[in-house]
Write a structure and sequence with these properties.
The chain is of the alpha/beta class. The protein contains seven helices and eleven strands. The chain has a single domain, classed as 4-Layer Sandwich (Purple Acid Phosphatase, chain A, domain 2). It has helices spanning 14-26, 51-66, 82-88, 122-131, 134-141, 145-165, 176-186, and strands at 2-4, 32-35, 69-72, 91-93, 97-99, 109-112, 190-193, 200-204, 208-212, 228-232, 235-239. The strands form two sheets. A six-stranded mixed sheet has the order 4-3-2-1-10-11, covered by helices on one side. It has a five-stranded mixed sheet with strand order 5-6-7-9-8, covered by helices on one side. The longest helix is centred in the middle third of the chain and has 21 residues, at 145-165. The structure holds manganese (II) ion.
């Protein structure tokens, strides 16, 4: 089983898209789980008619013919709907979800994008609660695709400005108390999440551990970043996606 997240695909990141495409075509994993923020923005399933999104959709469909492909919504692509999953053949993953793989380990692992755990970021949690409401989504999706793209671009510009003002150390992380509650409710001891772009594996007090996924950026980051977390009977390992075959 492979876990990846936070690819933030957009037309401005051609090398990142190419690396994902090569990885999906070559991985020896029997299933791939994309834990949110596959796209930098997703303003509605009619986006799949646009050239870049259609190309990505075709890539996901081809990957799904090689191995089961599971996609979770992130804070950038929370508007994936039934038509996206229909068009790509990907399986819609709720957040959080317990993954049982008795062939690998007796206990499940808990998968999440991770944004819902970052409760110290109260401004973001208010925004999240608003945009996850069916009424807000229906009103947003009633706008034209061009209008939604413009609103999405404005929101991302505001978010970038906010991040540049904040001290890096003040970025919220997954709340350990809430994470432990989620794990206990799922009868799991291992949490896998993305979102924070701070990859690490750690054991926590209380007998649980977490694996935080890396984001991918093979276009602007120096050095380029991309990583796969693989779960086998031997445990968890981090791989270069080019070496995942
Ligand atoms: Mn995110």
């Amino acid at each position: 089983m492979d876990f990846i997240s936070d690819l933030h695909l957009s037309p401005e990141l051609p090398r990142t898209l190419a690396a994902l495409e090569a990885y999906l075509a070559s991985t020896c994993a029997d299933a791939v789980f994309i834990l949110g923020d596959l796209f930098e923005a997703w303003v509605g399933d009619d986006s799949i008619t646009l050239p870049f999104e259609r190309r990505c959709g075709d890539m996901l469909a081809a990957a799904g013919r090689r191995h089961p492909l599971y996609v979770m919504r992130g804070n950038r692509d929370f508007l994936f709907g039934a038509a996206f999953f229909e068009a790509t053949g990907a399986v819609d993953l709720p957040d959080p979800v317990a993954l049982h793989a008795p062939g690998i380990a007796p206990a499940p692992v808990l998968l999440s994008h991770g944004d819902a755990l970052c409760i110290d970021d109260t401004a973001y949690q208010q925004f999240r609660a608003q945009v996850r409401q069916p009424a807000w989504q229906a009103a947003f999706l009633a706008k034209s695709l061009a209008e939604r793209q413009a609103i999405g671009a404005q929101m991302r510009a505001a978010s970038r400005e906010h991040q540049q003002r904040a001290e890096p150390v003040t970025y919220a992380d997954a709340d350990p108390t809430l994470a432990r509650q989620w794990l206990m409710a799922a009868d799991a001891r291992v949490l896998v999440h993305g979102h924070t772009h701070r990859p690490q594996s750690e054991r926590r007090d209380g007998g649980w551990q977490r694996h935080v996924l890396s984001d991918w950026d093979l276009d602007h980051a120096t050095p380029p970043r991309a990583e796969v977390l693989r779960w086998t009977a031997q445990g968890f390992t981090r791989l270069d996606p080019a070496q995942a075959g």
